[in-house]
């Protein structure tokens, strides 16, 4: 698939040949690149609805998306760094955080750029629904101040719980996906600037993650 993951699409059994159609039962298991250990899931059998108005029907099971999630989690694809030098839209500084959190203002009188490090702490859970599928993500985010000598100082760390919905549609002969962030929750786990109410940060962090992380996922 790419440098991080590979897919095993070999046949599970001999093709079933009938007069009006042929059934191909493919494995559809995604593995982290460089390893071939089995994912921690069990594939459940499923059938494609009996239809005959198209030449080809292609179905993906929940198991396929679960193994995708496992492979990319294992490969570290959900570990993201958002910094000014790596994202042209990112220009958040300690001055902005300090205007919301007095403890940050006391630590950083001089404005410094801010860097965010996001990491998935558990394998994202993928669930198929009627016209879309949802992804549950548990992760953490550490916020750093970038000092003039390019070193960083950790300000605080938070846990993140996110729920997103992805709807797939075919438009102009292309498979298109639209992503909606249903829920985004934060909880403070560690702070080097002193305790503060996490609700002060929720609006700004929701904005940063929705404008920086989600478009990257759509583009990929």
Automatic annotation (TrEMBL):
Q: Keywords for this entry?
A: Antibiotic, Antimicrobial, Disulfide bond, Glycoprotein, Immunity, Innate immunity, Secreted, Signal
Instruction: Enumerate the Pfam families for this protein.
Output: LBP_BPI_CETP_C
Q: Which GO terms describe its biological process?
A: defense response to Gram-negative bacterium; innate immune response
- Domain (Lipid-binding serum glycoprotein C-terminal): give its ranges: 50-217
Molecular function (Gene Ontology), one example = lipid binding
Per its UniProt record, what SUPFAM superfamilies does this chain match? Answer: Bactericidal permeability-increasing protein, BPI
Q: Which InterPro entries match?
A: Bactericidal_perm-incr_a/b_dom, BPI/LBP/Plunc, Lipid-bd_serum_glycop_C
List, alphabetically, the SMART domains matched: BPI2
**Where is the protein situated, by its record's location annotation?**
Secreted
| Record comment regarding domains | The N-terminal region may be exposed to the interior of the granule, whereas the C-terminal portion may be embedded in the membrane. During phagocytosis and degranulation, proteases may be released and activated and cleave BPI at the junction of the N- and C-terminal portions of the molecule, providing controlled release of the N-terminal antibacterial fragment when bacteria are ingested. The N- and C-terminal barrels adopt an identical fold despite having only 13% of conserved residues.
Which named protein is this?
Answer: Bactericidal permeability-increasing protein
UniProt lineage? Eukaryota, Metazoa, Chordata, Craniata, Vertebrata
């Amino acid at each position: 698939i790419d440098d991080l993951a590979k897919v095993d699409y070999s046949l599970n059994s001999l093709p079933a040949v009938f007069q009006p159609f042929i059934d191909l039962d493919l494995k559809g298991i995604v593995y982290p690149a460089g390893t071939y250990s089995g994912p921690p899931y069990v594939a459940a059998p499923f059938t494609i609805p009996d239809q005959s108005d198209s030449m080809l029907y292609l179905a993906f099971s929940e198991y396929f998306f679960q193994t995708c999630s496992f492979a990319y989690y294992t490969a570290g694809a959900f570990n993201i760094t958002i910094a000014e030098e790596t994202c042209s839209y990112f220009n958040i500084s300690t001055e902005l955080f300090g205007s919301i959190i007095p403890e940050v203002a006391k630590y950083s009188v001089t404005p410094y750029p801010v860097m965010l490090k996001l990491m998935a702490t558990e394998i994202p859970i993928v669930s198929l629904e009627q016209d879309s599928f949802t992804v549950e993500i548990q992760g953490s985010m550490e916020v750093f101040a970038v000092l003039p000598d390019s070193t960083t100082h950790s300000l605080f760390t938070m846990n993140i719980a996110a729920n997103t919905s992805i709807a797939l549609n075919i438009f102009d002969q292309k498979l298109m996906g639209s992503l909606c962030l249903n829920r985004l929750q934060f909880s403070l786990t560690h702070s080097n600037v002193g305790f503060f109410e996490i609700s002060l940060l929720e609006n700004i962090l929701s904005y940063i993650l929705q404008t920086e992380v989600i478009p990257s996922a759509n583009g990929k």
